[in-house]
Amino acid sequence: MPLPPGYGLVKAVNVVAYAKRFADPHTRMYYEIPVIELRLENGRRFLMSNVPPEIVEAIQVMNNQLDVPRRQSIYILLMNNQEFRDIVTRSVKEVIIDELDEVRGLYTASLVLEENGFHLTLKMIPSHAIFLALLAGKPIYVREDLVEQAAEDEEEEF
Hints:
By secondary structure, this protein is an alpha+beta fold. It has a single domain (9-157), classed as Bifunctional nuclease domain. The protein has helices at residues 53-62, 74-79, 82-91, 126-136, 144-157, and strands spanning 9-23, 30-40, 45-49, 92-101, 106-115, 118-124, 140-143.
């Protein structure tokens, strides 16, 4: 997929999904925010928070961090369907997290599909695209400028 000049890609070498626990000092209540963390080949990390908890759970099952729960989501059902996995493995080429809606604070990913000379790029919710890439064993990339911007935002937050 061609990128505008100056936009490089950084490859994810590991994907970790978890719930980050926070305490509200006023109410003394705890709450959890579902997170997907991409550990990148350049040693940095790229975090996406408030992702669907079902995807976090499915990635944890995929990574053998969690047993298959009694109540299964559609993601775990798809993960355990060999025919679906075969189709995804054949057709998914890569995932690129390549856009940020700065007003809403939402990322967008491009899911690149190729099979038998057919090429299609779909814009998707990044957590969903990441799930499909992991299922297919295909690479996940993040646009370098988005990694830089996220690092700056994280520094400002703390």
